[in-house]
Design brief:
368 residues; alpha/beta; FAD/NAD(P)-binding domain; 6-stranded mixed beta sheet; 11 helices; 17 strands; binds flavin-adenine dinucleotide
């Protein structure tokens, strides 16, 4: 069988994962990334056990200078601390620039071709040709869309994409009282806020699906800083970014184009966790490309991710219902041991799924 020419758009976790896995399969792809090494991507950088398993499968070294290990977890609701515990699960926080650079370096050191500062400006699906802003054209047998939430490749296959969630985030120096992983409810509706500690700073952010206007979300951000960033001087200006947090099904593969990561909408619909999904879908796409029918093989291999996301969407409808949300968070407060178990196994480890959590909630409601 002739070795297919694979072109990847986007050098984030999804693009690097597929690149690294393709190299392991004997295929040398070309990866086009629009930014240089000094990109400053907005992201909480929390990597759960799910993501760590993917990194191990890709043989990425968990270098302590990049992977900051923390186990302190706190939940808040409307300013009140409802849970504070040391997790038994190992998880990491990274600064995205360093993390993405590491993945790109792993990809190139294993023989991958990477072209930085190469924004793709057009995709000709009929001619199977991609052109970058500097005028270079590349033909392909398979095009991998790893260009994120609002990228050209997902727009080529999904002309009417579902509305993404909007996030605001700021990074501040480490200061007293802000450490570990803090998940904060009650600041935004249909979303949540976070303070995540990495090796040299704290990322404070929030994201929501129905956020009204940008100004409404900014007011929520100011409230977040008042409650959880009291020791921070001034009101640092947040930056905004999108997460494909919405539910509607997308076309994830067609006409020699395969979407991975955010471009495919693979993000946890409640937590917004996307790094592990990006790594996993990238890895699976590389395996599908060497199958007899790559497009079909890919759709089949990621169907479990789509099912997980669909269950999460049902859970989200319940969780963001104000009455149910109040009840659930109250249950969290009353039963810290059970909540820590759910957090460790659902959020941080992935060993229980949203389906299981739905069952637990039904049981809890039935007992009342
Ligand atoms: C504020 C915020 C906080 C988050 N926090 C977390 C978290 O704590 N944990 C977690 O797991 N997830 C988090 N996420 C989600 C996570 O960042 C994404 O799911 C993840 O980055 C997806 O990886 P990706 O490779 O699919 O896309 P991206 O990381 O977006 O990478 C896409 C790449 O494509 C490049 N690109 C785009 N267009 C072009 C083009 N035309 N030509 C060439 N290159 C192009 C971009 O420069 C980029 O490098 C967060 C997201 C946001 C916005």
């Amino acid at each position: 069988m002739a070795i297919p020419k694979v072109l990847i758009i986007g050098g984030g976790p999804a693009g690097c994962a597929i690149g690294i896995e393709l190299l392991a399969q004997g295929i040398t792809p070309i990866l086009l990334e629009k930014k240089g090494k000094d990109k400053n991507k907005l992201c909480g950088g929390l990597i759960t056990n799910r993501g760590i398993r993917q990194l191990e499968l890709l043989k990425i070294p968990l270098n302590p200078s990049i992977f900051f290990n923390t186990s302190q977890v706190r939940f808040y609701n409307c300013g009140e601390k409802i849970l504070d515990y040391q997790s038994s699960k190992g998880f990491f926080c990274v600064r995205r620039q360093a993390f993405d650079n590491l993945l790109q370096e792993e990809y190139t050191s294993r023989g991958g071709i990477l072209s930085l500062n190469s924004p793709v400006i057009s995709i000709d699906q009929r001619k199977q040709l991609v052109t970058t802003s500097n005028g270079t054209s590349y033909d392909y047998d398979f095009l991998i869309g790893a260009d994120g939430v609002n990228g050209l490749s997902s727009r080529a296959t999904n002309p009417n994409p579902p509305k993404p969630a909007l996030c605001l985030e700021v990074f501040v120096p480490k200061s007293n009282g802000l450490d570990g992983i803090n998940v904060i409810f009650g600041v935004v509706q249909k979303g949540f806020s976070w303070c995540f500690e990495n090796d040299n700073s704290i990322g404070i952010g929030l994201g929501a699906i129905d956020y009204g206007s940008y100004q409404d979300l900014k007011q929520s951000y100011e409230l977040l800083l008042q409650t959880h960033g009291k020791s921070i001087e001034g009101t640092p200006k947040p930056r905004a970014a999108l997460v494909p947090y919405s539910g509607r099904n997308r076309t994830i593969a067609q006409n020699k184009i395969i979407l991975v990561g955010d471009a495919a909408g693979f993000v946890d619909p409640i937590l917004g966790e996307g790094i592990s999904y990006a790594l996993e879908s990238g890895r699976l796409a590389a395996r599908a490309i060497v199958a007899p029918k790559p497009i079909e093989a890919y759709k089949k291999s990621v169907s479990f991710l789509s099912r997980r996301i669909q269950a999460g969407l049902r859970m989200r409808k319940l969780f963001f219902n104000p009455t149910i949300n109040k009840f659930v968070l109250n249950e969290f407060r009353k039963h810290p041991g059970r909540t820590a178990h759910i957090c460790d196994n659902l959020v941080l480890d992935g060993s229980i799924g949203y389906e299981d959590l739905l069952g637990m909630i039904k049981l809890a409601i039935g007992r009342r």
